[in-house]
Amino acid sequence: MQAPVFWSNPPDAPGLAARLLAPAAALWRWQAARRIARPPRHRPQVPVICVGNLTVGGTGKTPVVSALLQRLGEKGIAAHALSRGYGGTEQGPLRVDPRLHGAAGVGDEPLLLSGFGPAWISRDRAAGARAAEAAGAAAVVLDDGFQNPDLPKDLAILVVDAVAGFGNGRVVPAGPLREPVERGIARADLVIALGPEKARERLLSDWPALGRLPVLGGTLAPLPTGMPWQGLRCLAFAGIGRPGKFFATLEALGADIVATRAFPDHASYPRAILQRLAAEADRLGAQLVTTEKDAVRLPEDFRHRVLTLPVRLSLGDWGPLDDALDRVLAPRK
């Protein structure tokens, strides 16, 4: 789904559409509050670390989850990722195996996470956590699930896109929020704000309630692969929450972007669309380039035609995150 333009309006001028949708937003807010207030269905014997957000759409959660899997692994903790498997047909609980599963079955994000550690999909988060525990997980990292009450969270991390912020500050469908900002912050332990420093400063100024929590500033930085992006003539395409972020990252590397094509988040790529992209790239004398998340949704026989630009979480100071992880792990070491 493409986000309505008015969702990005400033909170003090949300627009007529947002005001007209206020009754529907009130119903959403009430239903969300009821769901969140439900008691947990399962209390795992291992720490549950949740990476979530307050808005619909992408904020950079998956790179944060992959970084946590790596960070925990360096601490000697066998952490397993647990995702709903959005966009896939499988219900789970199912451990993702990239040799057996594709994005159509398990979703693109779990498939991507399986490259960093054991990854599970389960529409029933409680059942998924039980399966991960039975398979030897010493910690469970929830990819999303901040508004899901099925599992108690030992550490709740909110990821915020500092540029997009919380949009007009209204709840769906009047705005991009899954729940009111104040309520979400009250249940969180830590905030990771992703974006340029000026955008992070503006975010904290516009939403001072964030200052009640430790706020870690960071970016999604390109992974050095040795690829000479400088001057490379590119046709860039992406089906993620904010394709413009990907295009800007590629441009900052010095790539010569001659065309961009943006698709909805988690978009599938039918053969006809890929043939059109390939034909356009050939006509422009350009190389097709996309994101890691998009690459796993491409057919195997098409991937050789596309370069992938991987990004990784970069924090100005990892100390507060490491301290938070050590606190939740300490009783179980």
Automatic annotation (TrEMBL):
<comment type="similarity">
    <text>Belongs to the LpxK family.</text>
</comment>
<dbReference type="InterPro" id="IPR003758">
    <property type="entry name" value="LpxK"/>
</dbReference>
<dbReference type="GO" id="GO:0005886">
    <property type="term" value="C:plasma membrane"/>
</dbReference>
<dbReference type="GO" id="GO:0005524">
    <property type="term" value="F:ATP binding"/>
</dbReference>
<keyword id="KW-0443">Lipid metabolism</keyword>
<protein>
    <recommendedName>
        <fullName>Tetraacyldisaccharide 4'-kinase</fullName>
        <ecNumber>2.7.1.130</ecNumber>
    </recommendedName>
</protein>
<dbReference type="GO" id="GO:0009029">
    <property type="term" value="F:lipid-A 4'-kinase activity"/>
</dbReference>
<comment type="pathway">
    <text>Glycolipid biosynthesis; lipid IV(A) biosynthesis; lipid IV(A) from (3R)-3-hydroxytetradecanoyl-[acyl-carrier-protein] and UDP-N-acetyl-alpha-D-glucosamine: step 6/6.</text>
</comment>
<dbReference type="GO" id="GO:0009244">
    <property type="term" value="P:lipopolysaccharide core region biosynthetic process"/>
</dbReference>
<feature type="binding site">
    <location>
        <begin position="55"/>
        <end position="62"/>
    </location>
    <ligand>
        <name>ATP</name>
    </ligand>
</feature>
<keyword id="KW-0418">Kinase</keyword>
<keyword id="KW-0808">Transferase</keyword>
<keyword id="KW-0441">Lipid A biosynthesis</keyword>
<keyword id="KW-0444">Lipid biosynthesis</keyword>
<dbReference type="GO" id="GO:0009245">
    <property type="term" value="P:lipid A biosynthetic process"/>
</dbReference>
<dbReference type="InterPro" id="IPR027417">
    <property type="entry name" value="P-loop_NTPase"/>
</dbReference>
<comment type="function">
    <text>Transfers the gamma-phosphate of ATP to the 4'-position of a tetraacyldisaccharide 1-phosphate intermediate (termed DS-1-P) to form tetraacyldisaccharide 1,4'-bis-phosphate (lipid IVA).</text>
</comment>
<keyword id="KW-0067">ATP-binding</keyword>
<dbReference type="Pfam" id="PF02606">
    <property type="entry name" value="LpxK"/>
</dbReference>
<keyword id="KW-0547">Nucleotide-binding</keyword>
